[in-house]
Write a structure and sequence with these properties.
CATH class of the largest domain: Alpha Beta
Number of helices: 6
Largest sheet: 5 strands, antiparallel
Shape: rod-shaped
Amino acid sequence: MTLFWRIWQAIILVDLSVLALFVWLALLQFAGIKADLVGERLLVLAEQTAAPFKAAGRIGLPLANVRNANALLERARQTDDTIQAIHVFDETGRILHSTDSAHPESISPGALKARRVSAGESWYRETSEGFLSSIDIPVLGRKAPSGIVIVYPATGSNIQVRAMGAELSLAAVAVLFVSSVLSTLLLGLVLRQQVRHFDDTEHTISDFERSSWRTAAGESVKTVANGYEPATFGQLLQAAEERYLSVCKSIENVGEKP
């Protein structure tokens, strides 16, 4: 049965590798789709929230002078309690209005870098601080636009990705179990004769080794082999041993001659 279990282990290892790769790729795709959905939803919210600030910018009113700006941002933030903060910032990244009680001085370096790369287009990114989504707010008389950015924590999304990973892993384990059972049954049917011949050959070789050691010790041993092919193989082994012993004796006789 040694040959059988070797083939079975190889099949299981291949199945395990394929399933692990499938789970990994599925998780990557799920995480990407989840990030796109969150980003697009935040872009819609950012566009709606920026509407009054865009109106002020069209007439050249500085965004810092927009009345009830913090109240407008807070109302937008309350549409989703998960939103961490909403900031309105000027062309340099300095925050003018924010729902964050700490009121940071400027947006994060990651947001500034993403804004430069976007080249005026609306954008969303997943960074170390979470999901960031932003659009520009042009201001009349200013060369560079201001903007609004929404900070959304990635914790909830990561939990969903891990939950999906657990479900996929459980399904992969179930598939691996079914595959191992089917492999055992199919290999037992397909390789029955080959496995029997392989086992008989192994037994013949073991018997031959034991008989060789006993013969060398001076015992008289008769090799018995089971099965058709192993029997022929055993006879060949015994004939080879007899020829080897005969040659050894001939060499000894030649060496003893004066």
